[in-house]
From TrEMBL:
A family per Pfam: EAL
PROSITE patterns documented for this protein: HDOD
Protein name as annotated: Signal protein
Positions of the HDOD domain: 211-396
Source organism (scientific name): Nitrincola tibetensis
Length: 412
């Protein structure tokens, strides 16, 4: 859990890059769509096919820790017809990239021929921005493998008839811009195979819901850790009310995540060895555990955002980087617990600057949190440039790798 220092030895990519998950019916990650821009604001031109860049891309951005194993999932890569026809496409691993055509694609016989050639070479092809009323797209349906349907643009009420018309093409249908759990359920009933959107990032509010007993104890431990007069024994006294929590902390401390020479047999011993800040971090991480069957990707997103906020604070040499970690982590706790953020924070013993950052994005904490949120969406033009551009991508990439390491340690 030690801080990762960003330095000149880090492999710099020539692009700002983020990723957006593509989910299966069970809300597992099937692929990631790459969101990126190079220094000139272009897309594919910034993505080179040199081995170093591809190695960083695949090892960092496609890696997913599932069932305590690291797996690589494919990328959806946006390409224009100009790039395809001019043979500017890098020589990419076929099994790792799905080539995604855009809505403004000019469908010509030459493009159809080129796509058929790429399909024969082993590339999977996808089409986004499909407009059922525009007949120009229909020749592509015989060539592509995945069809992305913008459910907000088309309208959910029109989707069932459209799905019937598309059935003869044997396409894998991807529901795009799925914004709520209700929309996800409707698309599931319509027969979609894949799903994109921010439906996992919004809480399903449950009226009158309160924080569960396990989470209350975690918050009590966190509050004691923030007490300047706390001791390892006073923290242990609270944690022992939940034997499962004590066991989890000891299991994590004894795992490969730490360089501990002796086996740790008591919580107070662990706190003495590792210090209050490390225990505080793990208590925060245990808060991310879902009690309602939430997908693993939500926990991963919470960890990535938390770590990125902390790394940005370290680079900016702000005081108390742990506070930035806490803000990033808790910024989606309302989603994890299906509670209104205001109601949730009324039950959480946190400092006022942390609460203001979470509710209003105020202060330096709020500004860093907002910057991380913007970066995640790939809307790089909206960045306020708190950092030099390359540091955003390196921070984000390190955070992805760190999150998978933590997930592995938490489930060992």
């Amino acid at each position: 859990m030690a801080g990762i220092k960003l330095n000149s030895n880090d492999q710099n990519l020539p692009v700002l890059m983020a990723r957006q998950p593509i989910y299966t019916k069970s809300q597992d990650v099937a692929a990631y769509e790459l969101l990126y821009r190079d220094e000139q604001g272009n897309f594919i031109q910034g993505l080179k096919d040199d081995e170093a860049t591809l190695a960083v891309l695949i090892n960092s951005y496609s890696s997913v820790n599932a069932n305590n194993q690291n797996e690589n999932v494919p990328f959806f890569l946006k390409v224009t017809d100009e790039i395809l026809l001019s043979n500017q496409l890098p020589d990419l691993p076929r099994h790792m990239f799905v080539l995604q055509l855009l809505a403004h694609t000019d469908v010509t016989p030459a493009l159809i021929s080129r796509l058929q050639e790429l399909a024969k070479q082993g590339y999977r092809l996808a089409l986004s921005g499909f407009d059922p009323a525009d007949t120009k797209f229909y020749p592509l349906l015989k060539v592509i493998h995945v069809l992305k349907l913008d459910i907000q643009l088309i309208g959910l009420h029109r989707i069932p008839n459209l799905v019937k018309k598309l059935k003869p093409f044997n396409l894998e249908l991807l529901a795009d811009k799925v914004e709520t759990q209700d929309e996800f359920r409707q698309c599931l009933e319509m027969g979609f195979e894949l799903y994109m959107g921010y439906f996992l990032s919004k809480p399903c509010l449950v009226r009158g819901k309160t924080i569960s007993g396990n989470k209350v104890i975690l918050l009590q431990v966190l509050n004691e850790l923030n007490n300047p007069k706390s001791t390892p024994q006073s923290v242990e006294e609270i944690a022992l009310k939940d034997p499962e929590l004590t066991y989890k902390i000891l299991r994590v401390v004894n795992s490969a995540a730490f360089n501990v020479q002796k086996e740790v047999r008591s919580l107070s011993h662990a706190i003495t060895l590792l210090g209050m800040e490390q225990i505080k971090r793990w208590v925060m991480l245990f808060l991310t555990k879902s009690e309602g069957g939430k997908p693993l990707e939500l926990t991963r997103t919470m960890l990535v955002r938390a770590r990125m906020c902390e790394l940005m604070a370290e680079i900016l040499e702000y005081d108390n980087p742990m506070d930035y970690f806490i803000v990033g982590l808790l910024s989606q706790l309302d989603v994890m617990m299906d509670m209104n953020m205001t109601s949730l924070l009324e039950q959480v013993p946190l400092q006022s600057n942390v609460k203001n950052a979470l509710l209003e994005r105020e202060g330096s904490l709020g500004k860093v949190l907002k910057e991380a949120e913007v970066y995640e969406t790939g809307e790089f033009d909206r960045l306020s440039d708190l950092l030099e551009r390359p540091f955003y991508e390196v921070s984000y990439r390190h955070s992805i790798k760190w999150a998978d390491q933590v997930l592995s340690a938490m489930h060992t």
